[in-house]
From TrEMBL:
One of its GO terms (molecular function) is hydrolase activity, hydrolyzing O-glycosyl compounds. It comes from Spirosoma rhododendri. SUPFAM superfamilies: Arabinanase/levansucrase/invertase (SSF75005). The record marks D153 as: Important for catalytic activity, responsible for pKa modulation of the active site Glu and correct orientation of both the proton donor and substrate. This is Family 43 glycosylhydrolase.
């Protein structure tokens, strides 16, 4: 879901300032880090960015032409980071056409689940799932996309009552605009400035974690006054990169505003929302995209994110982590990734 980034965007961000964190790995390009703690250890499920020289940059993010996943692991924040090699290759996903975008993972009853978006052979994004007995794979993909899923950026949230929810969606190159009311329309248009913005999607997962247990719903995301965002509120409305976490009994839905490059968050009392907008979590980073995850480890909270510190190119990103802190009222202190 990305449009041409451009050097102008690069210049408007924090060029010249000092990054607060360094890339977690530098031997490969990584992005969209979905972090989890499994058995006391941190696992990061990122996109694996590559320089596909045969693919031209376009407004639908065609230059994000990723073909596999590598899972990173670390015992603690600040410790050595291990690249566990190829965990899933696009050639082993029977229905895949191109573009393995931002994944997520979950664990249940001895099995690890890797959720991923990829375009099918007709160039339509759907979500797939793959399983492994190890958190770092190798993962085996199911032969078909997950029924009823579409668009990009899956995020699985497992609530304390054992229920699991799949969040997803992304406009522009992420194709969410083609799926109003869960029906495909290849001509689905972006909203006009005065129209109500597209909303992210959610569905509870079935017990086997491979299927949806219910029809896909829109996640209710409201502005500070309890009103839906309009498309012209593009510094706050949802674009892509959904993440859900829970803190002190409240549900936090965070996401990217895409073309305005913010990571924002909203709070609610249920995994379905409604979520009320609370502010910016991470200001724009170097590069067009902004995409994150949030975990708790040893009593501290961490934001995983990416920028393009190593390459200076929008499609060659590097994942990073920084501590995240809450205010006494449960709101989150805004992070600026550069000093
Ligand atoms: O990495 C490809 C796409 O870029 C992701 O799916 C979006 O969230 C954006 O980060």
């Amino acid at each position: 879901a990305l449009s041409c980034l451009s050097l102008s965007t690069f210049a408007q961000t924090e060029t010249g300032k000092t990054p607060i964190s360094q890339p977690l790995v530098s031997h490969i390009y990584t992005a969209d880090p979905s972090a989890h703690v499994f058995n006391g250890k941190i696992y990061i499920y990122p996109s694996h960015d590559i320089d596909a020289k045969d693919v031209k940059e376009d407004d639908d993010g065609g230059h994000f032409a990723m073909r596999d996943y590598h899972i990173l692991s670390m015992d603690k924040i600040g410790g050595p980071v291990k690249d566990n090699g190829v965990a899933l290759d696009i050639k082993d996903i029977p229905w895949a056409g191109r573009q393995l975008w931002a994944p997520d993972a979950a664990y249940k009853n001895g099995t690890y689940y890797l959720y991923f978006p990829v375009k099918d052979k007709q160039d339509v994004f759907h979500l797939g799932v793959a399983t492994s007995k190890s958190p770092v794979g190798p993962f085996k993909a199911e032969p078909q996309p997950m029924k009823g899923t579409y668009s990009i950026d899956p995020c699985v949230f497992q609530d304390t009552d054992g229920k699991s929810y799949l969040y997803f969606g992304g406009i522009w190159g992420g194709q969410l605009q083609r799926w109003d009311n869960n029906q495909y329309d290849a001509k689905g248009a972006l909203k006009k400035p005065e129209e109500v913005a597209y909303l992210p999607r959610v569905a509870r997962l079935a017990a086997d974690m491979k299927e949806l247990a219910e029809p896909v719903k829109a996640v209710q995301l409201l502005d500070e006054n309890g009103k839906p965002f309009l498309e012209k509120d593009n510094d706050k409305r949802f674009f892509e990169a959904a993440w859900l976490h829970k803190y002190k009994g409240k549900y936090y839905f965070s996401y990217s505003t895409g073309d305005t490059h913010n990571l924002c968050y909203a709070m609610g009392d249920s995994p379905y929302g409604p979520f009320t907008y609370k502010g910016v979590l991470l200001k724009p980073v170097l590069g067009w995209t902004n995409h994150h995850s949030i975990i708790e480890k040893d009593g501290k909270w961490y934001l995983f994110y990416h920028d393009i510190q190593l390459s200076g190119k929008t499609h060659l990103r590097n994942v990073k982590v920084t501590e995240m802190t809450y205010n006494p009222d449960g709101t989150i202190k805004t992070i600026d990734a550069y000093k």
